[in-house]
Design a protein that fits this description.
Elements lengths: L4 H24 L6 H8 L3 H7 L3 H5 L3 H5 L1 H7 L7 H14 L11 H9 L2 H26 L7 H25 L4 H18 L2 H4 L8
Length: 213
């Protein structure tokens, strides 16, 4: 369905407020910028900012909705014959090979990461996002395998698959903060991903194969 004029204007307003806030955060730090200052810079009211972003942290992690369901979405979208772990590893490889900003391979990442490191509220929100990622992945595995609520296997498998993803993301973040080029980090992390796959057990790698009995 085509986006209506009202919806487009709301999306554009939301994006503009987010862009203004991000610019201020990167320039001055998260704690030094108030919501009132963001509203003034974006030429909107404080209430308008809160209508789009319930908390100040939401302005910084404005794309977190795409983050929290990413692993679950990859698992649910896997083709026949592919396991849950294989789907996540494949999607990660594709993002890294493409030097995608969605995995942090982007110039200027150092400034973004330093804002997080200097703000306890952002570190706390990042931890909460990681917990949501894990919970959504576990729920997807339960649904895909038909596991009972008291079955701990989906939780254990989500932990293993989530470890692979979080390890890759942590290494990318660490190396980008060191000021290295996205292309160089991409090449090295692809090798790391092969090592991670070697460390995963056969049981993890063959869990939740789509189409298997």
């Amino acid at each position: 369905m085509a986006e209506g004029l009202r919806e487009r204007k709301k999306r554009q307003t939301r994006q503009y407020i987010s862009d203004v806030a991000t610019g201020l955060f990167l320039e001055r730090g998260f704690d030094a910028v108030t919501v009132a200052e963001i509203a003034a810079a974006a030429d909107v009211s404080v209430n308008t900012v809160y209508n789009y972003f319930p908390a100040k942290e939401d302005l910084f992690f404005d794309r977190s909705a795409g983050m929290v369901d990413r692993l679950a979405r990859w698992v649910r979208g896997r083709p026949d014959g592919e396991s849950a772990a294989a789907a996540v590893l494949r999607e990660l490889r594709e993002e890294i090979e493409a030097v995608s900003p969605r995995v942090g391979l982007i110039p200027g990442y150092t400034r973004f990461q330093r804002v997080i490191e200097e703000a306890p509220a952002l570190r706390s929100r990042l931890w909460a996002i990681a917990q949501e990622v894990q919970a959504n992945l576990e729920q997807a595995l339960r649904e895909e395998t038909g596991a009972a609520d008291d079955d701990e296997l989906p939780n254990l498998m989500a932990g293993q698959i989530g470890w692979a993803h979080s390890t890759v993301m942590a290494v990318i973040g660490r190396e980008m903060v060191r000021g290295r080029s996205p292309q160089e980090v991409s090449r090295e992390v692809l090798v790391l991903l092969d090592d991670i796959e070697d460390l995963l057990s056969e049981r993890v790698l063959t869990y939740a194969v789509r189409g298997s009995s």
